Amino acid sequence: MKKSILALFTYLCSSSLYAAEGGSSQYLPGFYGDFGMGTSSASGTYLSNFFGYNWASNSNNGSSNSLLFELPGIIHVTETKILNGTYTFGFYPYVLRSTYNTKVNNDKKEFERAGTGDMYAVPVQLSWQYGDISFLAFEGIVVPTGSYEKNRDLNAGRNSWTFDNNFSITWLPDNGKYDLSLTFGYMVNTENTATHYRTGDDVHVDYSTGYYLTPSLGIGVTGSYYRQVTNDTGAGVPLNTMSGEYSSIGPVMTYTVKMGERDVSFSTKWLHEYDVNNHIPGDYLIIRTNLKF
Asked: Is the distance from CB of 8 to CB of 118 less than 8 angstroms?
Protein backbone atom coordinates (compact mmCIF):
# COMPACT_ATOMS: atom_id res chain seq x y z
CA MET A 1 0.00 0.00 0.00
CA LYS A 2 1.60 3.27 -1.11
CA LYS A 3 -0.15 5.50 1.39
CA SER A 4 0.87 5.21 4.99
CA ILE A 5 0.51 7.41 7.98
CA LEU A 6 1.88 7.84 11.04
CA ALA A 7 3.04 9.85 13.75
CA LEU A 8 4.09 10.15 17.21
CA PHE A 9 6.85 10.25 19.81
CA THR A 10 7.57 12.00 23.12
CA TYR A 11 9.92 14.87 22.28
CA LEU A 12 11.49 16.54 25.31
CA CYS A 13 12.43 20.20 25.49
CA SER A 14 14.06 21.92 28.43
CA SER A 15 12.50 25.38 28.54
CA SER A 16 9.24 26.31 30.27
CA LEU A 17 8.69 28.90 27.53
CA TYR A 18 7.80 26.19 25.02
CA ALA A 19 4.09 25.67 24.45
CA ALA A 20 2.73 22.11 24.69
CA GLU A 21 3.17 20.09 27.86
CA GLY A 22 6.85 19.23 28.18
CA GLY A 23 7.44 20.82 24.79
CA SER A 24 6.15 17.64 23.14
CA SER A 25 3.91 16.83 20.19
CA GLN A 26 2.34 13.72 18.72
CA TYR A 27 3.50 14.87 15.27
CA LEU A 28 6.70 13.62 13.63
CA PRO A 29 8.15 15.79 10.82
CA GLY A 30 7.76 14.30 7.37
CA PHE A 31 6.12 11.03 8.36
CA TYR A 32 3.16 11.67 6.10
CA GLY A 33 5.41 12.79 3.24
CA ASP A 34 6.12 9.97 0.81
CA PHE A 35 5.53 8.89 -2.77
CA GLY A 36 1.81 8.53 -3.52
CA MET A 37 0.63 9.79 -0.14
CA GLY A 38 -2.81 10.52 -1.61
CA THR A 39 -3.23 7.08 -3.21
CA SER A 40 -4.45 3.69 -2.03
CA SER A 41 -3.53 0.17 -3.13
CA ALA A 42 -5.71 -2.71 -4.28
CA SER A 43 -7.90 -4.45 -1.72
CA GLY A 44 -6.06 -6.69 0.72
CA THR A 45 -4.07 -6.67 3.96
CA TYR A 46 -0.68 -4.95 4.11
CA LEU A 47 2.26 -4.64 6.48
CA SER A 48 3.59 -1.07 6.52
CA ASN A 49 6.56 -0.92 8.87
CA PHE A 50 8.34 2.30 9.88
CA PHE A 51 11.83 2.13 11.39
CA GLY A 52 13.58 5.35 12.31
CA TYR A 53 16.17 7.22 14.29
CA ASN A 54 16.02 10.83 15.51
CA TRP A 55 18.79 12.86 17.10
CA ALA A 56 18.63 16.43 18.39
CA SER A 57 20.68 18.74 20.60
CA ASN A 58 20.25 22.07 22.39
CA SER A 59 23.42 24.19 22.22
CA ASN A 60 22.04 26.60 24.84
CA ASN A 61 22.21 24.11 27.70
CA GLY A 62 24.15 21.17 26.28
CA SER A 63 21.21 18.78 26.37
CA SER A 64 20.59 16.15 23.69
CA ASN A 65 17.96 13.59 22.80
CA SER A 66 18.05 10.43 20.70
CA LEU A 67 15.18 8.18 19.73
CA LEU A 68 15.12 4.75 18.08
CA PHE A 69 11.62 3.63 17.12
CA GLU A 70 9.54 1.19 15.09
CA LEU A 71 5.87 1.17 14.04
CA PRO A 72 4.77 -2.14 12.45
CA GLY A 73 1.41 -1.14 10.98
CA ILE A 74 -1.30 -3.53 9.77
CA ILE A 75 -3.53 -1.96 7.09
CA HIS A 76 -6.61 -3.51 5.46
CA VAL A 77 -7.96 -2.08 2.19
CA THR A 78 -11.53 -3.25 1.81
CA GLU A 79 -13.80 -3.50 -1.23
CA THR A 80 -16.41 -1.42 0.61
CA LYS A 81 -17.36 1.97 -0.85
CA ILE A 82 -18.40 4.91 1.33
CA LEU A 83 -19.28 8.16 -0.46
CA ASN A 84 -17.82 6.43 -3.56
CA GLY A 85 -14.47 6.19 -1.77
CA THR A 86 -12.56 3.00 -0.91
CA TYR A 87 -12.74 2.27 2.82
CA THR A 88 -9.50 1.34 4.62
CA PHE A 89 -8.62 0.86 8.30
CA GLY A 90 -5.55 -0.08 10.31
CA PHE A 91 -3.36 0.49 13.35
CA TYR A 92 0.30 1.15 14.20
CA PRO A 93 1.72 -0.18 17.49
CA TYR A 94 4.73 1.80 18.64
CA VAL A 95 8.01 0.57 20.16
CA LEU A 96 10.77 2.96 21.20
CA ARG A 97 14.03 3.51 23.01
CA SER A 98 14.58 7.13 24.03
CA THR A 99 17.60 8.69 25.72
CA TYR A 100 17.82 12.22 27.11
CA ASN A 101 21.08 13.80 28.33
CA THR A 102 21.33 17.08 30.21
CA LYS A 103 23.35 18.90 32.87
CA VAL A 104 22.12 19.66 36.39
CA ASN A 105 24.49 21.87 38.42
CA ASN A 106 27.29 20.95 35.96
CA ASP A 107 26.65 17.24 36.58
CA LYS A 108 25.73 15.14 33.58
CA LYS A 109 22.40 13.35 33.85
CA GLU A 110 21.08 10.68 31.51
CA PHE A 111 17.50 9.42 31.37
CA GLU A 112 16.41 6.42 29.32
CA ARG A 113 13.08 4.84 28.52
CA ALA A 114 12.30 1.79 26.38
CA GLY A 115 9.05 -0.02 25.67
CA THR A 116 5.74 0.57 23.97
CA GLY A 117 4.56 4.08 23.13
CA ASP A 118 1.18 5.54 22.18
CA MET A 119 -0.49 3.56 19.39
CA TYR A 120 -1.71 5.28 16.21
CA ALA A 121 -5.07 3.91 15.00
CA VAL A 122 -6.87 4.65 11.73
CA PRO A 123 -10.55 3.66 12.07
CA VAL A 124 -11.62 5.44 8.88
CA GLN A 125 -9.75 6.17 5.66
CA LEU A 126 -11.41 6.91 2.31
CA SER A 127 -9.69 7.25 -1.08
CA TRP A 128 -10.82 8.39 -4.53
CA GLN A 129 -9.10 8.41 -7.92
CA TYR A 130 -9.93 10.59 -10.95
CA GLY A 131 -7.51 9.97 -13.80
CA ASP A 132 -3.99 10.90 -12.67
CA ILE A 133 -5.22 12.69 -9.52
CA SER A 134 -5.98 10.84 -6.28
CA PHE A 135 -7.51 12.05 -3.01
CA LEU A 136 -7.40 10.50 0.42
CA ALA A 137 -8.98 11.50 3.75
CA PHE A 138 -8.46 9.76 7.06
CA GLU A 139 -8.97 10.13 10.79
CA GLY A 140 -5.96 9.14 12.86
CA ILE A 141 -6.33 8.61 16.61
CA VAL A 142 -3.38 8.53 18.99
CA VAL A 143 -4.36 6.12 21.77
CA PRO A 144 -2.56 6.64 25.15
CA THR A 145 -1.18 3.11 25.45
CA GLY A 146 2.39 4.17 26.27
CA SER A 147 3.87 3.92 29.74
CA TYR A 148 3.36 7.16 31.72
CA GLU A 149 3.94 8.37 35.27
CA LYS A 150 3.26 11.95 36.29
CA ASN A 151 6.53 12.55 38.16
CA ARG A 152 8.82 10.50 35.92
CA ASP A 153 11.56 12.36 34.05
CA LEU A 154 11.06 10.50 30.77
CA ASN A 155 7.87 8.83 29.55
CA ALA A 156 7.08 6.61 26.58
CA GLY A 157 3.56 8.07 26.24
CA ARG A 158 1.79 11.39 26.81
CA ASN A 159 -1.31 10.17 28.69
CA SER A 160 -3.71 12.00 26.37
CA TRP A 161 -5.69 11.32 23.21
CA THR A 162 -5.05 13.11 19.91
CA PHE A 163 -7.43 13.25 16.94
CA ASP A 164 -5.50 13.76 13.71
CA ASN A 165 -7.68 14.94 10.79
CA ASN A 166 -5.95 14.60 7.41
CA PHE A 167 -6.54 15.21 3.72
CA SER A 168 -4.05 14.18 0.99
CA ILE A 169 -3.74 14.68 -2.75
CA THR A 170 -1.39 13.07 -5.29
CA TRP A 171 -0.90 14.07 -8.92
CA LEU A 172 0.89 11.61 -11.22
CA PRO A 173 1.47 13.43 -14.54
CA ASP A 174 3.30 12.11 -17.63
CA ASN A 175 1.92 8.58 -17.19
CA GLY A 176 3.07 8.43 -13.58
CA LYS A 177 6.71 9.37 -14.15
CA TYR A 178 6.29 12.31 -11.78
CA ASP A 179 4.79 12.22 -8.30
CA LEU A 180 3.54 15.42 -6.61
CA SER A 181 1.91 14.80 -3.24
CA LEU A 182 0.60 16.96 -0.39
CA THR A 183 -1.04 16.26 2.99
CA PHE A 184 -2.72 18.76 5.30
CA GLY A 185 -3.44 17.73 8.89
CA TYR A 186 -5.06 19.28 11.95
CA MET A 187 -4.39 17.63 15.33
CA VAL A 188 -6.76 18.12 18.28
CA ASN A 189 -5.22 17.21 21.64
CA THR A 190 -7.16 16.26 24.76
CA GLU A 191 -6.34 16.84 28.43
CA ASN A 192 -3.71 14.84 30.27
CA THR A 193 -5.89 13.53 33.09
CA ALA A 194 -2.91 13.10 35.44
CA THR A 195 -1.77 16.74 35.18
CA HIS A 196 -5.00 18.41 33.95
CA TYR A 197 -2.95 20.08 31.21
CA ARG A 198 -4.26 20.33 27.65
CA THR A 199 -1.84 21.01 24.80
CA GLY A 200 -3.10 23.31 22.04
CA ASP A 201 -4.05 22.15 18.56
CA ASP A 202 -1.42 21.57 15.85
CA VAL A 203 -1.32 22.10 12.08
CA HIS A 204 1.04 20.10 9.88
CA VAL A 205 1.67 20.14 6.12
CA ASP A 206 3.73 17.42 4.41
CA TYR A 207 4.84 17.30 0.79
CA SER A 208 6.79 15.11 -1.61
CA THR A 209 8.02 15.72 -5.16
CA GLY A 210 9.48 12.76 -6.99
CA TYR A 211 10.53 11.32 -10.31
CA TYR A 212 10.56 7.62 -11.30
CA LEU A 213 13.83 6.75 -13.03
CA THR A 214 12.32 3.32 -13.72
CA PRO A 215 8.88 1.88 -12.86
CA SER A 216 10.40 0.48 -9.64
CA LEU A 217 12.89 3.22 -8.65
CA GLY A 218 11.96 6.77 -7.66
CA ILE A 219 13.91 9.67 -6.17
CA GLY A 220 12.71 12.98 -4.84
CA VAL A 221 12.51 15.60 -2.11
CA THR A 222 10.17 15.49 0.87
CA GLY A 223 9.51 17.95 3.67
CA SER A 224 7.05 19.34 6.19
CA TYR A 225 5.82 22.35 8.11
CA TYR A 226 4.46 22.30 11.69
CA ARG A 227 2.93 24.93 13.96
CA GLN A 228 0.90 24.92 17.17
CA VAL A 229 -2.08 27.16 16.46
CA THR A 230 -4.02 27.35 19.74
CA ASN A 231 -2.86 28.02 23.30
CA ASP A 232 -2.35 25.43 25.99
CA THR A 233 -4.97 25.38 28.74
CA GLY A 234 -5.47 23.84 32.17
CA ALA A 235 -3.26 23.54 35.22
CA GLY A 236 0.36 24.65 35.18
CA VAL A 237 0.45 26.53 31.85
CA PRO A 238 3.64 28.67 31.98
CA LEU A 239 3.42 32.44 31.55
CA ASN A 240 4.61 33.94 28.25
CA THR A 241 4.48 30.63 26.41
CA MET A 242 5.40 30.68 22.73
CA SER A 243 4.11 28.17 20.21
CA GLY A 244 6.49 25.81 18.47
CA GLU A 245 7.05 26.13 14.72
CA TYR A 246 9.49 24.41 12.39
CA SER A 247 10.04 22.98 8.91
CA SER A 248 11.97 20.01 7.56
CA ILE A 249 13.36 18.94 4.20
CA GLY A 250 15.47 16.15 2.76
CA PRO A 251 15.93 13.52 0.06
CA VAL A 252 13.72 10.44 -0.36
CA MET A 253 14.14 7.29 -2.45
CA THR A 254 11.69 4.46 -3.09
CA TYR A 255 12.41 1.04 -4.60
CA THR A 256 10.14 -1.93 -5.30
CA VAL A 257 11.42 -5.51 -5.68
CA LYS A 258 9.83 -8.90 -6.31
CA MET A 259 10.06 -11.42 -3.47
CA GLY A 260 8.37 -14.54 -4.72
CA GLU A 261 4.86 -13.53 -5.73
CA ARG A 262 4.93 -10.34 -3.66
CA ASP A 263 5.96 -6.79 -4.49
CA VAL A 264 7.90 -5.32 -1.57
CA SER A 265 8.56 -1.59 -1.55
CA PHE A 266 11.19 0.26 0.48
CA SER A 267 11.34 3.99 1.13
CA THR A 268 14.32 5.74 2.73
CA LYS A 269 14.46 9.40 3.69
CA TRP A 270 16.60 11.80 5.65
CA LEU A 271 15.05 14.98 7.05
CA HIS A 272 16.72 18.06 8.50
CA GLU A 273 14.76 20.65 10.49
CA TYR A 274 15.16 24.38 9.77
CA ASP A 275 13.38 27.71 10.47
CA VAL A 276 12.93 26.49 14.02
CA ASN A 277 11.13 28.53 16.68
CA ASN A 278 10.73 27.31 20.28
CA HIS A 279 11.71 23.76 19.39
CA ILE A 280 14.96 21.79 19.54
CA PRO A 281 16.09 21.15 15.91
CA GLY A 282 16.95 17.62 14.92
CA ASP A 283 17.49 15.16 12.08
CA TYR A 284 15.57 12.03 11.14
CA LEU A 285 16.43 8.86 9.26
CA ILE A 286 13.32 6.87 8.32
CA ILE A 287 12.99 3.55 6.50
CA ARG A 288 9.56 2.27 5.47
CA THR A 289 8.82 -1.26 4.26
CA ASN A 290 5.51 -2.12 2.64
CA LEU A 291 4.20 -5.50 1.48
CA LYS A 292 0.95 -7.34 0.91
CA PHE A 293 0.26 -10.52 2.87
From this structure: yes
